[in-house]
C-alpha cells in the first residue's frame, strides 16, 4: 500500500512537461491580451492581473534545459511588461 501512495506522488516527466508548456502558453496569451489592450487603448486591470498571475506560474523548473530556457525568456518578457505598466 505504501508503494502505491509513493508512486502517486511521483510526477511523470511527460505530465510535468505538458503542464510547463501550458503555463508558457497561458503567459503568451496574457502578453497578447496586453498587446491588444495597449494598441486599442483599452488596457484594463484584469489584463494586468492575468499577466501577473501568469508570471507567478512560470517559476517551476521542468528539468529540460531547452524548455526551462524558453519559459525563462517568457518570464523575462512578462516581468518587463509588468514593470513598464507599474510605472504608469
Percentage of residues in DSSP E strands: under 5%
Succession of helices and strands: HHHH
Which range best describes the helical content: under 10%, 10-25%, 25-40%, 40-55%, 55-70% or over 70%? over 70%
Measure the end-to-end span: 57 Å
Largest sheet, in brief, is:
none
Radius of gyration: 16 Å
Mean pLDDT figure? 84
Counting DSSP E segments of at least 2 residues, the number of strands comes to 0
- What is the SS-derived class? mainly alpha
Give the helix tally. 4
The low-confidence parts are none
Account of the protein in words:
It is a single chain. By secondary structure, the chain is an all-alpha fold. Helices cover about 80% and strands about 0% of the residues. It contains four helices and no strands. Helix 3 (about 45-55) runs antiparallel to helix 4. The chain starts with a helix and ends with a helix. The mean pLDDT is about 85.
Q: Which key terms come to mind for this protein?
A:
81% helix, elongated, 0% strand, 4 helices, mainly alpha, 88 residues
How is the topology of this model organized?
Blueprint (H helix, E strand, L loop, with lengths): L1 H8 L3 H28 L4 H13 L7 H22 L2
Helix pairs in contact: 2-3, 2-4, 3-4
Please summarize what this structure is.
By secondary structure, the protein is mainly α. The protein is built from four helices and no strands. The chain is 81% helix and 0% strand.
Amino acid at each position: 500500500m505504501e508503494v502505491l501512495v509513493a508512486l502517486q506522488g511521483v510526477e511523470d516527466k511527460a505530465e510535468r512537461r505538458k503542464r510547463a508548456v501550458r503555463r508558457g502558453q497561458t503567459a503568451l496569451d496574457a502578453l497578447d491580451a496586453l498587446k491588444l489592450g495597449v494598441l486599442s487603448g483599452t488596457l484594463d486591470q484584469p489584463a494586468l492581473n492575468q499577466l501577473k498571475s501568469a508570471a507567478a506560474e512560470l517559476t517551476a523548473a521542468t528539468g529540460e534545459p531547452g524548455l526551462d530556457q524558453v519559459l525563462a525568456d517568457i518570464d523575462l518578457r512578462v516581468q518587463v511588461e509588468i514593470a513598464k505598466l507599474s510605472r504608469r
